[in-house]
Model the fold of this input.
Amino acid sequence: MRYDPIPRSLFVKNRANFVAKMKPNTIAIMTSNDVKHNNADDVMGFTQNNDLFYLSGINQEDTILVLYPDAVSKQNKAILFVTETNDQIKIWDGDKLTKSQATAISGIERIEWRSEFEKMLQYMAFEADGFYLGHNEHIKRVTIDQETQQDRLIKWCKQKYPLHEYHRAAKITRQLRQIKSEVEVTLIQKAVDISIEGFLRVLKATKPNIKEYELEAELSYNLIKSGATRHAFKPIVASGKNACALHYNSNDNLCKEGDMILLDFGVCYGNYNSDTTRCIPVNGKFSKRQKEVYAAVLHCLKEGSKLLKPGVLHADYEKNMTSLVEQQLVKLGLLTEESIASQDPKQPLYKKYFMHGTAHHIGLDVHDVGPYLIIEEGMVFTCEPGIYIAEEQIGCRLENDYLITENGPINLSENMPIEIDDIERLLQG
Done:
């Protein structure tokens, strides 16, 4: 693996927390994601199912975790099934995990080969009353038109054991994964630190007439060199008017003299992610209007992040963030107090310039799972206000990652330059 070994105590504790929430005499089955294919015999690569990783630390395809805390036999309480290697696999794909390696990573004593799963499950299934099965329950789920490994397991299990009760593993993991342990925060911080190094490289490389993808390359070089797994998401390097498209990421335009570049990027390290955004002037100095817009967004970030406190309703936080941005839109001359007072509440005017939410969980997923109800200590949130003025070809978003504590939010991205003077000084230096 590229990343430093993660203490297996994390996964042991995660499993203990999970089984404590299971109904009596039930079995939980978590399976890995598929290897996604491209064309012919090529593949896009492999990204582990995050619930499986959360409970085991295993980053290998064709893996199944079975948890049966009420099993009669102690050895059946936790079983991890991994792919058995052979000479053919070694020649073409290299080594797979041995049983001892799987134990060292996960802390699970009983490791079996994947080929034994169906037979061994049957020995336990008729003792149990029900199953917990994993599925992608993210609010922005994108697998709705694809059959996944989880879909196939659910279908197979219900055909094989139709009279058992069925429960949703994601309902438990969605609650548990919101609160980050000290180890998880350290991994997120490592991802943020790599992002900071990448941003500093971008500042050194930026100049008029450079291509957006050349700056993306600086981010890519740095994360690979630093032992990160991959980009947390396809980075956005959006110059000029491109910054007004929220998910622009073709990154193939020229960065022109006088443009401002919006960089939204993150790093995945040890399966944990960062998510940060900065805006910089191509020529090293913000124009008067760019500086006004940037200062307005930075004000919203500084004031809005203070609202990330334990006990605050997430809906109230977003409402207050909206008010902050709305006030700045008035100062920028984009809205008036009179127009706001007479607007249709169902179609607020600010949405022309500010279209998205500003705080999402971050962890194993960039938009990490969670019910988004009450902000609690131990959560990690982004804060990312923005103002987008298409008619002026200016789009500005600024984003940090914050750990929620009882004493206020801790900015994990504190060391990533953000003040106007610092940005200009670094670009010009």
The chain has two domains: 9-176, 182-428. DSSP finds 13 helices and 21 strands in the chain. Residues 182-205 form the longest helix (24 residues).
